Every structure is written in C-alpha cells, then in structure tokens.
Amino acid sequence: MELSSSLFGKLLKRTRTAIPTGAMFNVGITIILAVLLMAVFAPLISPYDPTRATPDILKPPSSSHLMGTNQIGQDILSRVIYGSRIILMVVLSATIISMAVGIPLGIYSGFIGGRADRTLSMVMDSIYAFPSLILAIAIASVLGPSPLNTAISLAVVYIPTYYRMTRGQTLSLREQLFVEAARSMGAGKLYIMRKHILPNLLPTVLVVFTLSAADAIITEAGLSYLGLSVTPPTPDWGYDLRAGQGYFTTGYWWISFFPGLMITLLALGFALVGEAMGEKISIASK
Questions:
Q1: Closest Cα partner for 110 from 179, 17, 181?
Q2: Domain 35-42+69-284: CATH architecture, name and number where available
Q3: Which residues are CB-neighbours of 207 under 8 A, at least 6 positions away?
C-alpha cells in the first residue's frame, strides 16, 4: 500500500510539472472540455432525436434548426452533438489500448535489451512503416464497421508510436545514476521499471497522448468517411461529412460544413494542448 501511494504521488508530481499555462494550452483545453461536456450532456442539450427524420428537408440554418437539416430531414446540430460521443469514445479507447500495450513493451524492451529488444523493435518498425490510414483501413475492413472495431484498428496503428517513444527514453534513463543506485541496493528489474522509469516517462507520454489523439481524430473521421466505422443512422462526424458531399456544390453547404468544422476543432484542440506541453517540457529540460 505504501509503495502504491509513493508511486501515485510521484506520477501526480510529474503530471503537474507537465501541465503548462498560456493561451495555446487554454484554447486547446477549452475546445476539448467543450466537446467532452457536449458528449456527456447530449440527451439534455440536443434539440431533436439525431436519427429521426423531420418534415424539414434540406433546410438551411435557422432558429428552429441552428445548423440546418440534411437530405432526409435530420437535425444537423443534434447529429453533431451525439456524434461527439462516437468520436471521443473511439479515439480515447484506441489511445488507452495503444498506451496499455505500447508503453509496457517499450519500457521492457529498452530496459532489458538483448534478443527481446531486437525482436520487438523489428515488429514495431514493420507496423510503423505502413501509412497509418492505409493500415487502419485494412484492419477495419477485415473486422467490419463498428466503433469497437475502429478503436482496435486505431490502437494497432498507434502502439508503435508509444513503443518507440518509451523505448528511446528508457534507453537513456537506465544509464542514469538513480537507476544504478537502485540496482546497487538490490532492487529488481520490475521494481526499477515501475518505480523509477515509468514516472520519468509520464511528461513525454502526456505529450504523445495528446498529439496521437489529434491524429487519431482525423484517422477515425477518414474511416467513417469511407463507411468503415459506423452504420446508418448512427450520428458520426466523418459519416455525415461524406453524406453531405454530393450536396455541397449545389448550395447545401451546411450538411458537410458543421461536421467537418467539429473534426477540425477537436483535432486542433488536442494538437494545441500537445504543443503547449511539449514546449514546457523542452524549456524545463534546458
């Protein structure tokens, strides 16, 4: 119990040192929190059922439909609100899975070395060599369209990102004096990796998390656009972007515009937070 409390305290301290201040971070975190609150309170703030068709077909933005309606009369604002649930669930699930696999493997590979390190590095480099969107499309096509399968597809894509980051950091940390001191006191490898290596990786992990989440948002939208994430009439930003594509040039711009705007804003929010955190870590390391 004492060990767990000590580790938690060290992780909390490292997390606080990685959290920046400034306009870039504030704008980014505001966007993320706004979308998160929108997803949580979707049933309370959505004016219509996002899957129900209304008599108002292809209506432009107005007081009754703030973002207009699509080609079958569904309210765009309601679909945007509920669509935030899908994209956040997929992206966060995929990121958590990739972290849960990539970080332990990276720490183990970098700390232990030897044949295990060479084998894992070869496998991860092989996955990393594929363009992320193409690999995600291939996996999603095999698994079939569903939010869970999309999360798995994205997780496979981003596991090498966390592996390579943690392995590189671990290779440096294992030569530090505090690790040598722990070894000289008889600490085991697992204890050192958990107690000394992992807490020192946390700031970098947070940066990679936010930047990979930003990239995963675009990739998830791409899979949805291709019909590989959700099935109609489930509200999803990428799917709705595709649904309105054929109507954009005929003047019904709002069908694609608002889902596309939300994809851009959410990805921008995570990217801004990641860049701000990266800048703080870079300054602190000098």
A1: 179
A2: Orthogonal Bundle (1.10)
A3: 18, 274, 277, 278, 281
Give the total residue count for the chain.
286
Q: Among the residues of the chain, which ranges form H helices? A: 2-18, 23-40, 42-45, 76-112, 114-128, 132-143, 147-173, 177-184, 189-192, 198-225, 237-243, 245-248, 254-284
Distances (CA, A) of 70 to 40, 240, 256, 257: 24, 9, 9, 11
Q: What is the pLDDT of residues 217-272, one digit of tens each?
A: 999 999 999 999 888 889 999 999 999 988 988 999 999 999 999 999 999 999 99
Q: Note whether 260 and 241 are within 8 A (CB).
A: yes
Rg of the chain over all Cα atoms, to the nearest angstrom? 22
153-178: pLDDT as tens digits: 999 999 999 999 999 999 988 888 88
Residue 48 per-residue DSSP state: S
* Tokens 């690790």 sit on residue: 179
**Residue ranges per structural domain of the chain:** 35-42+69-284
Please state, in angstroms and rounded to a whole number, the distance separating the CA atoms of residues 188 and 184: 10
Q: Is 45 helix (H, G, I), strand (E, B) or coil?
A: helix
Contact 28, 265 (CB under 8 A): no
Token reading at 228 = 């590989």
